[in-house]
Amino acid sequence: MRLSSSHLRGVRIRSRGGSPCAWIGKEHEQAEWRRSLLAYYDRYSVAKESSSKQLCARRYLVRGRVQGVGYRYFVERVAAELGLTGYAKNLENGSVEVYAVGAPDRLKELSGYLWKGPRWADVRGVEEQEAPVVHYTGFRIG
User: Fold this and answer.
1) pLDDT tens digits along 62-84
2) Active-site residue 93, yes or no?
3) Is 90 a catalytic residue?
4) Which member of 59, 63, 65, 90 is catalytic?
């Protein structure tokens, strides 16, 4: 049997990490599109809500096994969801420095996530201190 374009309608192939995954059917594509759209607007409303409040900044020093386990990318994702700006960067001593700007309640929520970390991280300590507010356009990995 020869496949025509009508047989492949609704099939999309994506490559993630070198292995192709096929999703068949438009229902999945529509659900995926709705989820991404809702996540975008949810982040936008969180950022808009937090920008109307007073901004403050915190600098966190996270110790433990936090390098080479996706910790900075985890922080970037959480910060974007919370509507925070700033950066996360590796330090030479094996720890990670996180600088975040946003509403005080969102920064407190971030602190809880910093203690958890991603699956393979082993957080031994999180030092938190106030910092001067520097305006960033988003959250960066340094």
Assistant:
1) 999 999 999 999 999 999 999 99
2) no
3) yes
4) 90
Q: Which residue has the tokens 């960033």?
A: 136
Query: pLDDT (tens digit, 9 = 90+) per residue, 1-44?
Result: 444 444 444 544 444 444 444 444 555 555 565 565 555 555 54
Cα–Cα distance measured from residue 116 to residue 9, given in angstroms and rounded to the nearest whole number: 43
Report the DSSP pairing between strands 85-90 and 122-131.
unpaired
The 3-state DSSP class for residue 52 equals helix
| Distance in angstroms (rounded) separating the CA atoms of residues 119 and 129 | 25
Q: Going along the chain, which residue ranges are E strands?
A: 11-16, 19-24, 56-65, 85-90, 96-102, 122-131, 139-141
Q: Which domains does the chain have, with CATH numbers?
A: 52-141 (3.30.70.100)
pTM of full prediction above 0.70: no
